[in-house]
Amino acid sequence: MKIENIADLRVLVHTARGGTLTAAAHALGITPAAASATLKRLEAQLGARLFERSTRAMRLTPQGQTLLDYAVRAFELLDEGESLVTADRGELVGTLRVASPSDLTRSTLLPWFDEFLALHPGVQLSLSVGDRPLDVMRDEVDVALRYGALADSRLVARPFALTNPVLTASPDYLRRHGAPKVPQDLVHHNCLIFNRSGRRHRIWRFAQHGQWTEVRVNGNRSVDDASLAREWTVAGHGISLKSVLDVRNDIREGRLVRLLPDWDTEPYPLHALLPSGRFVPARVRAFVDFLAMKFEALTAS
Description:
By secondary structure, the chain is an alpha+beta fold.
């Protein structure tokens, strides 16, 4: 027998991505029982087992991996055909799946998203906000905005901004504790630690006249949400080291004060990441171009 409904393949794709039928069901808006029945129907039609089941997760069989590779490509081709058809009407349509950092989203991106959607009413935005980087190759993401150096050669990266983190504290904190004069003074301050990829970022590096110095900082709060780290800083709970894009409004409006302005920090680039080799729909290309224009204007101001 052949596959009777190509839409059933979405259960295969989402089960592989999420690792469970429950995750697939949640992503597709159906019940786990319906997802399980669909997968069993696929296996019966093909006469092959697609997953090895366990109590914790589902692992693709070799046959399942083969079908998954072709299913992903099939849906990409459908997206490509949709884009080519709608391009004749000069419209952008479809769902735009974006992953972006928490603080950058709240401080900068939200009004830009509104503007892009107003320009292209046929586009729907599916936004994933967080500071734990998604697997762009595996997860259902069209474009991910990510800070820091890039190591995954499977990704295409478009640079948006080359920024340096800045050290800030609130006026209230500085009234109570004073301001550091040199980086080494930070060991006597409550520093708010940002957790990156499960690791606490305790070593802060500064440079002056080409000479770098490292300071191991400590504090009574650490968090993996950059937006919350900024809110704690504004509330006077300590000193933080964050991208200037995230705190520029707070500095301009006096909620935060920049510290050690004569010291440099390590570059902290922001990129748009897209999977290499995957078809990029017109709506995604237009969105990335739109953000590039916005960031160029922002960093030039």
